[in-house]
Prior knowledge:
two-stranded antiparallel ribbon, 10 strands, 16% strand
Amino acid sequence: MTRKDSLRTPNARFNDLPDYPFEPNYIEVDGFRVHYVDEGPGDAAPVLMLHGEPTWSYLYRSMIPVFAEAGMRAVAPDLIGFGKSDKPTSRGIFSYQQHMDWLTAWLEAVDLRGITLICQDWGSLLGLRLAAENPDRFARIVVANGFLPTGDRDPGPAFKVWRGFTAYSPLFPIGRIVDFGTKRSLSPAERAAYDAPFPSSKYQAGARTFPGLVPTSPKDPAAAANTAAWESLGRWEKPFLTLFGRHDPILGKADKPLQEHVPGAAGQPHDRLDGSHFVQEDVGAEIARRTVVWIASERD
C-alpha cells in the first residue's frame, strides 16, 4: 500500500538495469516505503553512500561492490522522492527539514553505527548535517562534490540557472541531466536507468523541489540548523576526506572551505579527480578504492 499523496514506481521499470544487480531492501518511514541497497557482511562496519539531485542509489553501482568485496557493509538508500522509494506527488510536502527527519528516522531504524559516510550533492547537504547531529554514529566522512550551505554565501550564477530550470522548465529529462553533469558520456541504457524511477512528470516532485530548498539567505528556514551543523563540523576531529571531480562548474572548488574548516581534514590525502559533478559516474571505483586504502591506513 502507498500513501494517497504518493506514487510507487512499478518494479518492472527497474528490470535489467546495467550493473545494478543488488537485492532491494525496504523499510517504512512516515508511511512511505524507503528502498536501500545493503551489500556485504551485515555485521561489518558500514559505508553509507548518500546520493543527491536528481539521482538515486544507481549512482553508486560501481562503488558498492568495491566496499562489499573489501569486507565492508555497503549501504545506499534512495531518498524519499527518488529511486525505488515512494514519491510524494505534492512539492509542498518537501522541505530541507522534512528530508532530514525522514533520513534520520531511516538511519535510526536501520541502526547503523561506526559509519563511513560518502556524500555528494544533496547527499552532502543532508549527510553532513546528519553526521553533525548524530556524531556518535559516524567514524569518518568522505565528501565528493558537495558542501553544507548556511545561506551566507552567494551560490553563483550557474546554480541560479539550474534552480530556475528545475522549477519552471516544462521538460525535466533526468537521464540527460545526469549525462550533462559527467565528464564521460553515459550510454543510452545508463541514461534510461536514471529515468527509470520517473514514469511521468507526476513522479518528479522531489527532484523538481530540491534546488529550491538550498539555503541562499540567512533568513532561509534551514539556515539556522545548517549553521549549527557547520559550527559542529568546525569541531569535527574524526577523519575527513575530500575527493572532488575537478571539472564540476558549481562545486568543483568547494573542497577548500571544507578542508580549512574541519579539523579532521588536516593531513588527509585530499584530491581533485578527473571527473565532473557526478564524480561517481566518472571515477566511482577509484573513489571507493581510495576510501578502502584510507580506512586501512588508520590501522597502520
